[in-house]
Amino acid sequence: MTDRSITVGIMKVDVSGDDTAALNRLTTRATERLTTALRREARLNVRSFTFNGPNLTPGDHGYRALDFIQIGINEKTERQLAFLLLVTEVEIAAASFSYLLALPSQLTNVAIISTRRLADYGSDEYEDEDLLADRLGTLMLQCFGRLLNLDYRAGDPQNYLSSIRVPADLDAMDRFTDAQFTTIVANLPAEANDRFSDNNRASFVLRQIASNLPRIFRGAFRANPIRIATKLPTMIATALSVIIVLIFGGETWDFAASVANDQLTVFVVASFAMASFVLYRAFSFRLVATRHGNTSESSVVTAAATYLALLFTLAVLFVAFAVLMYGVVVFVFPDTLMRTWTSAKDGSTVEAHVRLVLFLAAVGILSGSLGGSADSRSVVRNVLFAADET
User: Fold this and answer.
1) Which domains are delineated in the chain?
2) pLDDT (0 to 100) of residue 317
3) Which keywords label this protein (predicted)?
4) What is the pTM of this model?
C-alpha cells in the first residue's frame, strides 16, 4: 500500500452556458457527499475545477460521450489526476439506452455524468436542488466504484453499486459494504495510474507496461475482442472479397504448396503487426502528453490495452477466416483439381491446405484492416472504452 496522495478530479463542463451557477452549486454539494462517503480513505484527495475549453458541437443523435472522454483524458493528463469525474448539464447520447445518466470508462479512469436526467424536466423534483445534489453525489460514488472495478450488486437497493433503472433508484443508495471498501483500498494503488515520465520516455513506457500487465490484459479482455470483431463489417467484407479472389487463383495454391514454413511465419507476423497498427491509428484515442512533455502511466496503460484488444480482435478474425477457408478447401475443391492445379508440389495434402488457409487468413486481416479503418470510429471506440453505460 502506498502512502502517496491520490487525487480524484471533479470537472464541471457547462456546455450550453444557460445556468453555470446552478451547475456549480449542484456539483459542489454533490462533491461534499462524495468526500464524506470516502473520508475513511485518507489517501484520497478530491479536487474540483471548471473546464474552460471550447464548447462541444452535438452530433446527429446529440452530444457524444466519447467526445467528453477525450476531453477528460486531456485534462486528467495535464492536471496529473488519478481519476476524473466529468459533470455536464447536457443530455448525452447513449448506444444502449434512450438516455444516459453516466458512463464510467475503466480503461481511461474517466467517468462522464449528466445532470440532465436526474429528474424529469419541469417536474417538482427538477426544482428540488437538495434532491438533485444527493442523486448526483450518489451517481459520482457509483462511477468511482466502477472505476475501481467494483461489480454491480443485485438485490441490494441501498448499495451504491445497485443497478439503476430510473433516477429515483438513486434515492435509496447510501452505502458501500465493508467488503467493497476493502476492495477500494486494495485497488487504489494499482488503479490510480498517476505516475509521470521524467526524461527517458521510452524507458518509462516499457517499465509501466511491464508493471501493469495484469491491468492491460484485463482491459483488453473486458473490451471483448469478439464483440469488437462484430462491429467491423467493412473490414470483414473487404477481407472476404480479397480471399475469395485469391483462393480461385492457381498461383495462390502454388505459393502455399511451395512456401517454406519460416517464410510463411514471417508473413503472418508482419500481417498482424501492420494490420494492428492500422486499426490502432484508426480507433484509438489521441493520448496526449503534458505541456512539459511528460507521459502519464494511465496513457501508457490505455494505449497498451487498446493495442492488445485490437490484436486479440485480429486473432479472432484470423481464426475465423482460416476455419472458413479450410472448409471451402475441403468441401468445394475436388482432390483431382488440387493435385494437378499446382505446378511444383501436390496441393492436396493436409500440410498444403494448412499453409494455404494460413496465408489467406493473413492476407484477409491485412487487406481487411485497410477497409476496417473506414468503419464507425464511434461504435468501435464505444466498445473499447465505454461499454459500461448507466
Assistant:
1) 6-192 (3.40.390.10), 201-385 (no CATH)
2) 92
3) Membrane, Transmembrane, Transmembrane helix
4) 0.75
